[in-house]
Write a structure and sequence with these properties.
The complex is a heterodimer of chains A (391) and B (107). Chain A has 391 residues and is an alpha+beta fold. Chain A is 52% helix and 10% strand. The longest helix of chain A is centred in the middle third of the chain and has 27 residues. Chain B is an alpha+beta fold and 107 residues long. Chain B has a single domain, classed as Beta-grasp domain (Ubiquitin-like (UB roll)). Chain B is 17% helix and 21% strand. Chain B has three helices and five strands. Classes of the chains: A alpha+beta (391), B alpha+beta (107).
Chain lengths: 391, 107
């Protein structure tokens, strides 16, 4: 067999500004393609992306050279495999289960959503991306994690700096200097709160990890909270903004969603249509083959969930936002051992609480100029503005 | 081939045939059985393949492991003594005819 073809034309700018036409072409012509600008082998068909994620022995998350290490000042569970990953993941996932979210946290989430939605002015044009999606996601996460003392501004800033550092594949000094400063702030807050969360357990992630029978080391507790900060704000923020865009630009569907109270379906469709996390990397541990091509050991493959979610083999007219699909087997939360730990929280908060509450308060909310909305991102993607009129 | 019957929360039965070695979750997902999601692909990370083993089959499917037990704590529907993560039940000939009941919700 031969190596996958090598592409020298696709640029990172193209992938960031408008990747979907490229992915559609690749699914049809070249579903396994080495893309020079990314330094990775891109996989754009759903069967391939799922197969890779479901096989962690062959396609490892463990990347010793990842810029995530300096960015988080730790080797985090996102970049571990097997038992090591399982133990650390289990320590935090106890705070993120459906039972806990429904019974213990539901009322708090509702109150937080009410507070933030009540602040929005009626009859004006408001950028919901900056004024609601980001801050509310930050506030809810701060409570889940057990660090509500952190401000929305801190949570959002830390999150962005961790992401910037983690994506610093050029190993430039500035992003690491910025993530270092954020790490200092976070470590100081965690240390200050530790005795309180230990003595007065509150069911938060921090508290549960500190008071576990067989706790993971403190350095990993910190790393887990940082991973959740880095990975738990932009995604619900972008999901919410994407779903709102989809519903506001498809008023017929919005009316039907309202009539059927199908907010959960709208949620699933939004994250299928534009997955907040579009791509993930896996290190190949043995010579293998994918889609008829040799994939050598040491290669890094990139699963493009964004493309898998529009694969013609699984979705009819996957390019369109259509809430009432028969089946929606999207991969927006990933697959395999690293399946999104925050999936239940996101479904509950965005799908069951925030969306219905927002449309209940502003039944005639509109997006008068959808063409003004700017979409951006290759690894992470969503609108970066959402100017709606609230009525 | 091994026969498995999935009884949905509303009582509707789906019977499928699966190969030995596949899990009760995989068999459901590859046959489009509603009510089993199995989002993490069987790595015990999501608790969306929760099922209740029929009383008659309890002894044959065996005990749940400690890890499975902990993950089940997070299941969306009530967990009982017969609750299992269906990704952890591997089909072998002794399970031919297995009946599992599905919970009201997985998410």
């Amino acid at each position: 067999m031969a190596l996958a073809p090598l592409d020298g034309a696709i640029t990172l700018d193209q992938l960031s500004s408008d990747p979907y036409p490229i992915y559609r072409r690749l699914r049809a012509e070249s579903p396994v393609l080495r893309v020079a600008s990314t330094g990775r082998t891109l996989l754009t068909k759903a069967a391939l992306t799922k197969a890779v994620k479901d096989n962690p022995e062959l396609f490892s998350s463990d990347d010793p050279q990842t810029p995530m290490k300096p960015a988080f000042r730790a080797h985090t569970l996102m970049r571990k495999d097997g038992r090591e990953h399982f133990v650390e993941r289990k320590a935090i996932s106890k705070a993120l289960t459906p039972t806990r979210i429904k019974t213990d946290w539901g009322p708090l989430y509702e109150r937080l959503a009410e507070d933030y939605i009540a602040r929005l002015p009626r009859g004006e044009t408001v950028d919901l991306f900056t004024d609601l999606c980001g801050p509310l996601a930050a506030r809810i996460l701060a409570h889940i994690l057990g660090i509500p003392e952190a401000s929305d501004e801190q949570m959002m800033r830390w999150s962005q700096l961790l992401i910037d550092g983690a994506g610093n594949f050029g190993w430039k000094p500035e992003p690491f200097a910025a993530s270092d400063a954020a790490n200092d702030e976070m470590d100081a807050l965690f240390a200050e709160l530790e005795p309180i969360r230990r003595v007065e357990p509150d069911g938060s992630a921090y508290s549960l990890m500190l008071t576990a029978d067989d706790p993971i080391p403190m350095s990993q507790i910190h790393a887990n909270i940082k991973i959740a900060i880095g990975g738990g704000i932009n995604e619900p923020r972008d999901a919410l903004a994407t779903i709102l865009y989809g519903l506001l630009t498809n008023p017929d569907q919005l009316a039907e969603v309202r009539a059927q109270e199908a907010w959960d379906k709208a949620f699933e469709e939004g994250i299928r249509w534009v997955a907040p996390i579009q791509a993930s990397s896996r290190l190949v541990t043995e010579d293998t083959e994918l889609g008829g091509f040799d994939i050598p050991k040491g290669d890094t493959v990139m699963t493009i969930q964004a493309s898998a979610n529009r694969d013609e083999e699984l979705f009819e007219d996957g390019e369109s936002f259509f809430v009432f699909r028969d089946k929606n087997p999207h991969q927006a939360f990933g697959n395999g051992p690293h399946h999104c730990a925050g999936a239940h929280v996101a479904r509950r908060t965005v799908g069951k609480i925030i969306l219905p509450m927002l449309f209940d308060r502003f039944p005639n909310m509109s997006l008068p100029n959808p063409e003004e909305v700017v979409w951006k991102g290759f690894g992470f993607r969503g609108p970066i503005n959402l100017p709606v009129v609230l009525n | 081939m091994i026969r498995v019957t999935y009884v949905a929360h509303d009582g509707a039965e789906t019977v499928i045939e699966a190969e030995e070695g596949t899990s009760v979750m995989q068999a459901a997902v590859s046959n489009d059985v509603d009510g089993i999601v199995g989002e993490c692909g069987g790595s015990m990370m999501c608790a969306t393949c929760h099922c209740y083993v029929d009383e008659a089959w309890e002894a044959k499917t065996g005990q749940r492991s400690d890890d499975e037990d902990e993950m089940l704590e997070g299941a969306a529907s009530e967990v009982t003594g017969r609750s299992r993560l269906s990704c952890q039940i591997k089909l072998d000939p002794s399970l031919d005819g297995l009946v599992v009941h599905l919970p009201e919700e997985q998410l």
